[in-house]
């Protein structure tokens, strides 16, 4: 894929309801809260927005659609996903799921359309081919797939002259299974963009939270990460220390690390300051020694942040 910015902006924490911002992140955000965030990002050249039909059961797409309509369609790069586990609501048709996303986003094509989870690769991948041929989908990607599943999807598409354009998996200092499994190398060899989500581990690697200031109680991320905060302290302190000479935050260092690993990080944004963090982080170049220090400290934590929805990559 060409002409992608170095960072995508994520909207998982927008919207509400099942798998939405209120349940997962402890947020309760409205169109009014997020409008200035979207506009600032666009002004700064960050125009790649990642969402999914499953985020808040469509409410993330609906909010994003409110902002997209203020711009010319070609100014915005839209990345959304269909989740096979929800397909029975759409007559088991990826085209019907895509049409619902079109309606929520207010568009008639998607720049990157993803299979959200690897439920029956042989069944779902062929359904993307007519969407590519029609132009309703410009590029396809797979998310949360292991290497064998990625190769299978690619071989199915290749029979009709298409390829996977992108892979989107959980990847951070604390969770490098896609690297260990050879997925990053496969993507590099085959010209596939690797989108890294949860680079900040839902804020646990932002430097904002610690034992004295835990993540918001009652949220899904608090249930996952607050128990790990003591083990993360040495790592996040090192991230802050590395950032000091650059006037950078721990979050910016996490972003810079992901870019140094030749990935395209997806950074969730709910505030203008987070857009600014993303831009600043994308400009930082870490030394090989700094990368080694961070990775060693991350390994030392012994923390496994694999999501409940994820299968092992190996």
Q: How does CATH name the architecture?
A: Alpha-Beta Barrel
**What is the CATH domain class?**
Alpha Beta
Distance between the termini: 27 Å
- Largest sheet data: 8 strands, parallel, barrel
What is the mean pLDDT?
Answer: 94
| SS strand fraction | 5-15%
- The name of the CATH topology is TIM Barrel
Instruction: Work out the helix count.
Output: 13
Can you describe this structure?
This protein has helices at 21-25, 31-43, 59-68, 94-105, 121-134, 147-158, 177-180, 183-190, 220-225, 229-244, 250-260, 272-282, 288-301; strands at 8-10, 48-50, 77-82, 112-115, 140-143, 166-170, 193-197, 264-268. It has 314 residues and is an alpha/beta fold. It has one domain: NADP-dependent oxidoreductase domain (TIM Barrel). An 8-stranded parallel beta barrel has the order 1-2-3-4-5-6-7-8, surrounded by 5 helices. The longest helix is centred in the last third of the chain and has 16 residues, at 229-244. It starts with 7 loop residues before the first strand and ends in a 13-residue tail after the last helix.
What labels describe this entry?
single chain; 314 residues; TIM Barrel; 8-stranded parallel barrel; 8 strands; globular
Compact summary:
This protein is α/β, with parallel strands linked by helices and 314 residues long. The protein has 13 helices and eight strands.
């Amino acid at each position: 894929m060409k002409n992608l910015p170095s960072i995508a902006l994520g909207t998982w924490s927008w919207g509400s309801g099942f798998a939405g911002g209120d349940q997962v992140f402890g947020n309760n955000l409205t169109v009014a809260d997020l409008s200035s965030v979207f506009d600032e990002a666009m002004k700064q050249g960050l125009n790649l927005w990642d969402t999914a039909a499953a985020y808040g059961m469509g409410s993330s797409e609906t909010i994003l659609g409110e902002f997209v309509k203020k711009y010319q369609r070609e100014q915005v790069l839209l990345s959304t996903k269909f989740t096979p586990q929800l397909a029975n609501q759409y007559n088991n048709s990826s085209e019907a799921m895509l049409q619902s996303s079109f309606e929520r986003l207010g568009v008639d094509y998607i720049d990157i359309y993803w299979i959200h989870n690897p439920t029956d690769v042989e069944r779902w991948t062929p359904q993307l081919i007519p969407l590519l041929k029609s132009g309703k989908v410009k590029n396809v990607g797979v998310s949360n797939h292991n290497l064998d599943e990625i190769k299978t999807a690619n071989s199915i598409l290749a029979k009709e002259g298409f390829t996977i354009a992108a892979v989107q998996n959980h990847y951070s200092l604390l969770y490098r299974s896609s690297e260990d499994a050879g997925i990053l190398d496969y993507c590099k060899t085959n010209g596939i963009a690797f989108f890294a989500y949860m680079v900040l581990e839902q804020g646990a690697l932002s430097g904002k939270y610690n034992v004295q200031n835990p993540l918001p109680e009652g949220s899904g991320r608090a249930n996952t990460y607050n128990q790990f905060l003591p083990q993360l302290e040495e790592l996040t302190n090192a991230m802050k220390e590395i950032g000091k000479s650059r006037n950078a935050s721990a979050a910016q260092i996490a972003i810079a690390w992901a870019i140094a690993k030749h990935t395209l990080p997806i950074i969730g944004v709910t505030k203008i300051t987070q857009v600014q963090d993303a831009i600043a982080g994308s400009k930082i170049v870490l030394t090989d020694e700094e990368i080694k220090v961070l990775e060693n400290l991350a390994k030392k934590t012994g923390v496994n942040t694999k999501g409940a929805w994820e299968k092992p990559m190996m």
